[in-house]
Amino acid sequence: MGAQTSLPLPVPDLEEIMTETGFSQANVTRLYQRFQALDKYEKGYLSKDDLQGIGELAVNPIGDRIINAFFQDGRKTADFRTFAHVLAHFRPVEGPVGSGSINSRLSKLKFAFQLYDQDKDGKISRAELLQVLRMMIGIQVTDEQLESITDRTIQEADQDGDNAISFEEFSKSVEKLNIEQKMSLRILK
């Protein structure tokens, strides 16, 4: 009648998730433990409310948009596989990475682009850019200054003259940024 120690539950689809995300077995196991901790009622999935309890996202000015990335195509829940896939975009790049990898430069750029392109029309409009800048900069500048920054950003990035930023234009405008490191979180160390 001694105390029993509970063994961690096996991670569903462990091998497949490792292959799809590039995470190690230890990383996937830790992510699964985090997933289970967020899934307080053991439903087997997360809702937006579950993710809003993550402190880092609560204080991030675009935290709601990051949370929405877990719920694509109108879904209301995210299973563990989806959770791991979204977080894999933030996996640090270690060594050479193929362009098909979920944490490649191209994949990270596409993920960042969709945080701006809320209507999913393949372009970042002036209104979408202004909305993100307003969330990120907030009350540190006047509305007039914010609109000026928005207009200047679009003017510099927009190469085809449509007053919007396509994915290609977005990619070109951030080509000098080390996006592989800027979009990396040491969430598993």
Which term fits the overall shape? globular
What structural category do the secondary elements indicate? mainly alpha
The level of helicity is 40-55%
What composes the largest sheet?
A: 2 strands, antiparallel
For the termini, the CA-CA separation is: 37 Å
Number of contiguous helices: 11
- Strand order in the largest sheet: 1-2
Instruction: State the order of secondary-structure elements, H for helix, E for strand.
Output: HHHHHHHEHHEHH
Radius of gyration: 19 Å
> In total, how many beta strands?
2
Uncertain regions spanning at least 5 consecutive residues = 1-5
Oligomer: single chain
Strand content: under 5%
- What's the average pLDDT? 88
Describe the structure.
- With 189 residues, the chain is mainly alpha-helical.
- It is built from 11 helices and 2 strands; from the N terminus they run αααααααβααβαα.
- It has a two-stranded antiparallel sheet.
- Helix 8 (126-137) crosses helix 9.
- It is globular, with a radius of gyration of 19 Å.
- Residues 1-5 have low confidence and may be disordered.
How are the elements arranged and paired?
Elements: H1 14-21, H2 25-38, H3 48-51, H4 55-58, H5 63-68, H6 80-88, H7 105-116, E1 123-124, H8 126-137, H9 143-157, E2 165-166, H10 167-173, H11 179-182
Antiparallel strand pairs: 1-2
Helix pairs in contact: 8-9
